[in-house]
Specification:
Elements lengths: L2 H20 L5 E4 L4 E4 L5 E3 L8 E5 L9 E8 L3 H10 L1 E2 L11 E7 L2 E14 L11 E15 L3 E10 H6 L1 H9 L2 E2 L3
Antiparallel strand pairs: 1-2, 2-11, 3-4, 4-5, 5-10, 6-8, 7-8, 8-9, 9-10
Length: 189
């Protein structure tokens, strides 16, 4: 092999390895042009977002006995914390006929200097395949649970992490959801 041939091959291999290293990590979630960063759990599978308002989407593999995977969506959006909690509660009904707001757990914590509101709702979920604002028929899904996090980032806007699916599947990954929220880091602006 000539020196010229060797250098050409070396250059191609270097470019290939550089391109591979530059590919985004499948578990890294960058929001607001990388100002906010989260890390997805190892078992979650990255998906193509189902609609254009969702920035990142993952599936949490279903547990035995559940028909479908859990769905995790991450996006920026407007509205107050309470307006969004009200909207999420409006996506559920309770089998006993009681108000969903009475069955909702809400807590607040600080992560990397940002306020995060965590919401936990169970009941019958009114699933809208096109998203919560899409017209069309909704499918009632009994025995569902939703874990949500609203990240308040004053300089860049609010971000929403929503994890919902069959209650057993969501419960299996509840600790992973907590780790996802706690993985939040904020880059210097």
């Amino acid at each position: 092999m000539s020196l010229r041939s060797f250098l050409g091959t070396f250059a191609i291999l270097t470019l290939s390895f550089t391109a591979l290293a530059a590919e985004p990590d499948e578990k890294t979630i960058k929001l607001a042009d990388g100002v906010l960063v989260l890390t997805a759990p190892k078992d979650w599978v990255r998906k193509e977002p189902a609609n254009n308002i969702v920035e990142h989407e993952f599936a949490a593999p279903k547990v035995e006995g559940d028909a479908i995977d859990g769905r995790i969506t991450i996006m920026g959006s407007g509205g107050t914390v309470q307006q969004n909690i009200d909207r999420w509660q409006g996506q559920f009904t309770q089998p006993d006929g009681k108000e969903t707001k009475d069955a909702t757990k809400v807590s607040k914590k600080m992560v990397s200097g940002l306020e995060v509101h965590v919401v936990d709702i169970t009941g019958t979920y009114q699933d809208s395949p096109g998203g919560p604002f899409a017209p069309g028929k909704k499918t009632a899904r009994d025995g569902y649970r939703m874990l949500g996090a609203i990240i308040i980032a004053p300089k860049i806007g609010n971000y929403f992490v929503k994890f919902y699916g069959p209650e057993k599947t969501v419960t299996k990954y509840e600790a992973d959801f907590g780790k996802l929220v706690d993985s939040l880091t904020v880059a210097a602006q």
